[in-house]
Design goal:
The complex is a heterotrimer of chains A (290), B (323) and C (388). Chain A has 12 helices and 2 strands; from the N terminus they run H-H-H-H-H-E-E-H-H-H-H-H-H-H. Chain A has 290 residues and is mainly α. Chain A has one domain: ABC transporter involved in vitamin B12 uptake, BtuC (Orthogonal Bundle). Chain B has 323 residues and is mainly α. Chain B has 15 helices and 4 strands. The chains are: A mainly alpha (290), B mainly alpha (323), C alpha/beta (388). Chains in contact: A-B, A-C, B-C.
Chain lengths: 290, 323, 388
């Protein structure tokens, strides 16, 4: 039994890292603009499909797809920003259906280009097992967990020290005050979408490497990312990693101790429990008006 | 109600009840689409009610839809209740499920929206696992269709259309009543400033809770209707995210601040998508729909209905007071 | 004199050709298929089979032709109903297609009301044939898959089996039936159901490895599930003797896309790969498929082909008798009795093809080899054998 639980914890940890990478982009945009980008999952999926094309067309491993995915997905993300910025009022609710519409466009675009077959990496190296002591996993899972951590650290540092990073934090906490301080909120918001696109690109390539993709997955990814974002609490980036790992571990433990049919249930119940006890999420600051 | 809006309402009702069946009744295909669109429209109406009067955006109306569907289906199949009674029970069942959600009311904005979504997922899994009651993932088959009343076979397309139209009209009436009652005024005031209304003595939580229950009841009704219209139910279908996204899209597209906007939005979006776009671009038509949505939000964020009202105003050159 | 006779002969030939041509008709057949939505993948496969059947039928029938009109049902019941209605309004004489019981159920009811025959290979659920539908036909069912899996497991003498199955309708039904049958034979069975959204199967496989300690892992799911389950097994390396799945697994596509995961894995399949068709029917199918789609036929195409071919032939027979508009198609369907790519097909009164027994195949050296039943085997069954 201990072995089972240990493995579950380990699996959950790795899975959580991947979830975090998927959720980060959404969390960033939500924190900055209070906008839920419902097309975020599709951005991740787009990157995953680009990785597929690189692998099947050029025969190169998914890692080589990262530069291409970065360019295409970030540009798409900035494109989404430009459309969103055209909304003049009631931005919170209107951006919902706007990004939903963009999500529909992207999903159908992916379906038309890549058809409906399931895809995943066929790289032998990435699919090989990797053992550390009593812990088993696929190589791709471990590698991309590492990538997740590096990216999160890089994001944190960027938010803390770079000009744009701090501008993002400023706009996040008080848009008007930031404007008064000379920060262009529009430019800053575009940057947050750009960074979200970069994160989505990595998340997508990672997804292709350890999981299976299908055009219809975009929506499910967005929902998961959103749950983690809200669980973490709006405005907390490190919270995203912790919330994601919490979710991953809860799921793995549910499967191990109870039944795998209830995996999704555990995520939802965990989510509700946290919200009952901490209505602003695990690390969310109580929002000030303004 | 002003005399001009009364006339237009009566005109609309006449068109809906009489003209549509006469003109389109023989075309099963179009009628099918209209019925499906009205089901979405009904859920959209209930969603908009919660949003406008309760001030809460919900991402989980599929929960109420699904519960309503299951309660109605199971009471007819297992207990042999008559269909209309079962449908009302479906609404009641959805309302009870909303009672379970009341603790979530104190959450704000996106937290509330997602919490309701979590409930929808949980209900789906419960429906799948509790197979002795719900038939598990196999679902419930051969659900009785709408009965024949006064010689009119309500299971026929036109019959089903009349039933769902009546449901929509009743819900719209109820919505309108609540809105113009003093509860409705209190709720709208709350929407703008919760603190101010509380100071004046309005029990905001009670009112919000009531709105959640009403919204749930309506959505449950339509879920129940759908079960008897399709005659087959399974967890994935009953709690599908489509019952969440399409109503929201319809409501916002049609103008969610108005009462008929959501219904109009549903009809337009659904029919335009299925009848026009699909015949032009069979496999990519959803893409065109996405573009339409984006365009609508960018150019007329209040939705379609207010846009139409603006055009009508210009065309008729008359002054029309807004509600 | 000779010239006149020749002229008369030629006139007779032309006249008779013209006369038989006059009674040859083109029939519109509707295809209600999920081309978008969750079932897009299987819908596309079935559609290919249907189009190939139309192609082959039109070439070989010599008298009548069919034209397919396809309407996307978007994997949704309401739209499936609408699709059938739209096809009916366009004058189709029958419907082929459909996937998933909750789409097929209302769609076939609608077809029934409109007096159209509905044939499918996408609904294995029992409720479809136990609801008294008159014009409903299907060529495969859960029982056929069950018989194949049980037959193979019995042949290799597996004493303990862990069943991993998705909580969807078709998979749950099959898994439960297999479990019951195995228990009745005294085989030790443990069952693990999983939510279709699961992507990490390591916790489940770990349970099998450390707790169940079974000899065989039986997987009942879809392509993405198989990939996840086999990957988890390759990482954890439980001490099992074989991995056995059902549909969508023993396919050329899986062999090509995931060469590391497939070796020695079992799944159901009708035809070996590379395909060696021995019958004329099979050759016609394979050639037309490769010509139209430039790729190897897969099981979805095979089913789509068989179901549609039988339908077209019934239509042709009814046309010859002049009963197409009077319910003749359904009558002729019931008289169906012929060998097809999937074996002998006969329809019972409820529309089910009770002869349906699938075949088990195994991935061997990037090929798919039929290994059960012995009469259809194209190679030797290798057991114990694993993908690592």
């Amino acid at each position: 039994m201990t072995e089972l639980i240990l493995q579950a914890l380990y699996s959950g940890l790795l899975q959580g890292g991947s979830y975090a990478l998927i959720a980060l982009g959404l969390a960033l945009v939500f924190g900055t603009m209070k906008i839920i980008n419902l097309a975020h999952g599709e951005l991740v999926l787009l990157a995953a499909y680009i990785a597929y094309s690189v692998e099947s067309g050029l025969g190169l491993g998914p890692m080589f797809a990262i530069p291409i995915a970065l360019v295409i997905v970030s540009l798409t993300s900035v494109g989404v920003y430009y459309i969103v910025s055209r909304i003049k009022k009631d931005r919170e609710i209107n951006s919902l259906i706007l990004t939903y519409g963009i999500g529909v466009i992207l999903t159908n675009f992916i379906l038309l280009v890549w058809k409906a077959d399931i895809r995943s990496t066929s790289s032998s190296w990435l699919q090989e097992g990797f053992e550390i002591g009593p812990f088993f996993s696929m190589r791709s899972e471990v590698i991309f967990f590492g990538v997740s951590l590096v990216l999160m650290a890089a994001l944190w540092r960027w938010l803390a020290t770079s000009w744009y990073g701090r501008a993002v934090r400023a706009v996040s906490s008080n848009r008007d005050a930031a404007k008064l301080m000379g920060i262009d909120p529009g430019r800053t918001e575009m940057v947050s979408f750009l960074v979200a696109g970069i994160l989505a690109a990595f998340a997508g390539v990672a997804l292709f490497s350890y999981g299976v993709i299908q055009p219809a997955y975009g929506g499910a990814l967005t929902v998961k990312a959103f749950i983690i974002t809200v669980l973490a609490g709006i405005g907390s980036i490190p919270g995203v990693l912790i919330a994601a790992v919490l979710l991953g571990v809860a799921e793995a433990l549910t499967v191990t101790l109870a039944s795998s049919a209830l995996q999704e249930l555990s995520g939802m119940v965990l989510f509700l429990l946290v919200l009952f006890i901490m209505p602003n999420g695990l690390f969310g600051a109580v929002r000030r008006r303004g | 109600m002003k005399s001009s809006s009364l006339i237009s309402t009566i005109g609309l009702l006449l068109a809906a009840y009489v003209a549509v069946p006469l003109l389109l009744g023989s075309n099963q295909y179009v009628m099918s689409m209209v019925v499906a669109a009205l089901i979405i429209g009904g859920v959209a109406l209930s969603w908009a009610l919660l949003g406008n009067l309760g001030g809460m955006v919900s991402f989980g109306h599929a929960a109420f839809f699904g519960v309503g569907a299951y309660v109605s289906a199971l009471t007819t199949v297992k207990l042999g209740l008559p269909v209309f009674a079962a449908m009302l029970l479906g609404g009641v069942g959805a309302t009870i499920s909303a009672v379970i959600m009341l603790p979530v009311l104190r959450l704000r904005g996106p937290y509330f929206a997602l919490a309701i979504l979590a409930y929808a997922h949980i209900f789906r899994i419960v429906a799948t696992e509790w197979s002795s009651l719900t038939g598990g993932s196999g679902g419930v088959a051969n659900i009785p269709t709408l009965p024949t009343v006064f010689g009119v076979d309500l299971a026929s397309k036109t019959g089903a259309y009349l039933v769902v139209l009546t449901l929509v009209v009743c819900c719209a009436l109820a919505y309108s009543r609540i809105r113009s009652s003093h509860y409705g005024i209190a709720l709208r005031a709350m929407h703008d400033s919760e603190d101010a209304t509380r100071v004046v003595g309005v029990n905001s939580t009670l009112l919000k809770g009531a709105m959640l229950l009403v919204s749930a009841f309506m959505a449950g009704l339509f879920g129940a209707f759908n079960a008897h219209y399709i005659n087959f139910l399974e967890p994935d279908y009953a709690f599908n995210s489509l019952w969440v996204t399409l109503p929201i899209v319809a409501a916002i597209f049609g103008g969610y601040r108005t009462i008929l906007g959501p219904v109009l939005g549903a009809v337009v979006v659904y029919l335009v998508d299925q009848l026009i776009f699909k015949s032009l671009i069979p496999t990519g038509h959803q893409l065109v729909l996405g573009v339409l949505l984006v365009a609508m939000i960018v150019f007329s964020p209040n939705g379609l209905l207010p846009l139409l009202q603006k055009w009508l105003k210009k065309a008729l050159g008359k002054e029309k007071k807004h509600a | 004199m000779k010239r006149t006779l020749t002229r008369i002969a030629m006139a007779t030939v032309v006249a008779s050709a013209w006369m038989s041509g006059a009674s040859a008709e083109e029939f519109l057949v509707g295809a209600e298929i999920p081309l978008t939505g969750n079932l897009a993948r299987v819908g596309a496969g079935m559609q290919e089979g249907i189009m190939v059947a139309a192609e082959v039928f039109n070439k070989t029938n010599g008298k009548h032709t069919v034209k397919i009109i396809t309407v996307d049902d978007e994997s949704a019941p309401a739209k499936a109903i609408a699709a059938v209605e739209k096809l009916a309004s366009q004058g189709v004489v029958a419907i082929t297609g459909g996937y998933g019981s909750n789409n097929i159920s209302p769609a076939s009811d609608t077809a029934n009301k409109l007096g159209l025959v509905y044939i499918t290979s996408g609904g294995v659920d029992d409720s479809l044939v136990s609801s008294g539908r008159k014009n409903f036909f299907r060529i495969n069912n859960t029982a056929g898959y069950e018989k194949a899996m049980l037959g193979m497991l019995a042949d290799v003498g597996a004493k303990s089996v862990s069943i991993v199955y998705s909580t969807k309708d078709a998979t749950t039904g099959l898994a439960k039936d297999v479990e019951k049958a195995l228990l009745a034979k005294g085989v030790k069975v443990t069952s693990h159901s999983f939510d279709p959204a699961i992507t990490d199967f390591k916790p489940i496989i770990n349970k099998i490895k450390l707790q169940d300690k079974s000899e065989v892992v039986a997987m009942v799911g879809y392509e993405n599930d198989y990939v996840g389950i086999i990957r988890a097994a390759r990482v954890l390396k439980p001490k099992i003797k074989a991995m056995v799945g059902v549909w969508s697994l023993a396919t050329p596509k899986m062999a090509a896309d995931f060469p590391d995961l497939m070796p020695n894995v079992f799944g159901t399949a009708l035809l070996a790969y590379p395909t060696e068709f021995k019958t004329a029917d099979g050759k016609a199918f394979s050639d037309a498929y490769k010509q139209l789609y430039k790729k190897e036929p897969d099981y979805l195409g095979q089913f789509g082909y068989v179901q549609s071919m039988l339908l077209f032939e019934a239509i042709a027979r009814a046309a010859d008798k002049g009963t197409v508009k009077k319910g003749g198609v359904a009558e002729e369907m019931r008289k169906t009795d012929r060998e097809t790519l999937i074996g002998r097909v006969q329809f019972a009164a409820n529309g089910d093809n009770q002869n349906f027994v699938h075949r088990m195949a195994q991935h061997q050296d990037k090929k798919v080899v039929i290994v059960w039943p012995k009469e259809n085997a194209t190679g030797k069954l290798v057991y114990p054998a694993l993908p690592w």
